[in-house]
Amino acid sequence: MPLVTRKGVFPYEYTDSWSRLNKTRLPRKRDFYSTLTEIRVTESDFEHAKEVWDHFDCETLGDYSDHYLKIDVLLLADVFENFRDLCMKTYNLDATYYFTAPGLSFDAILKFTQQKLQLLHDYDMLLMFENGIRGGLVQASKRYAKANNE
């Protein structure tokens, strides 16, 4: 059970082509280096990767990748379901109905304090609130873009 109840490690930058997924060995320890975080894999994390590879009879890096993704997604799902249960028990609010944590938090504080919001009758007050609005949903659809405006 310890092999699937912790975050695994994966050589993201090593896996730069589909052909790498056909490799029949776990990449070397140095191939797990991330230029994004500038962190090398620890000896214990690399040993964990080798144990996972052996225990689940991975024949290719693709097999290891599939297993890594399943564990990663299922652990995240477990954490989120636990959070969802906590929100339901504490505030009777379902976290899946909210796009953001601030939206959930705002409803939770209103419910917890039983505070009723007053209707804004003053136009200047409304403008003050509208001017204070910042941000919104953000999405990065592409990881890399190249400007063509030479």
UniProtKB/TrEMBL annotation:
<keyword id="KW-0235">DNA replication</keyword>
<dbReference type="GO" id="GO:0006260">
    <property type="term" value="P:DNA replication"/>
</dbReference>
<dbReference type="GO" id="GO:0000166">
    <property type="term" value="F:nucleotide binding"/>
</dbReference>
<keyword id="KW-0239">DNA-directed DNA polymerase</keyword>
<dbReference type="InterPro" id="IPR004868">
    <property type="entry name" value="DNA-dir_DNA_pol_B_mt/vir"/>
</dbReference>
<keyword id="KW-0548">Nucleotidyltransferase</keyword>
<protein>
    <recommendedName>
        <fullName>DNA-directed DNA polymerase</fullName>
        <ecNumber>2.7.7.7</ecNumber>
    </recommendedName>
</protein>
<keyword id="KW-0238">DNA-binding</keyword>
<dbReference type="GO" id="GO:0003677">
    <property type="term" value="F:DNA binding"/>
</dbReference>
<keyword id="KW-0808">Transferase</keyword>
<comment type="similarity">
    <text>Belongs to the DNA polymerase type-B family.</text>
</comment>
<dbReference type="GO" id="GO:0003887">
    <property type="term" value="F:DNA-directed DNA polymerase activity"/>
</dbReference>
<feature type="domain" description="DNA-directed DNA polymerase family B mitochondria/virus">
    <location>
        <begin position="6"/>
        <end position="138"/>
    </location>
</feature>
<dbReference type="Pfam" id="PF03175">
    <property type="entry name" value="DNA_pol_B_2"/>
</dbReference>
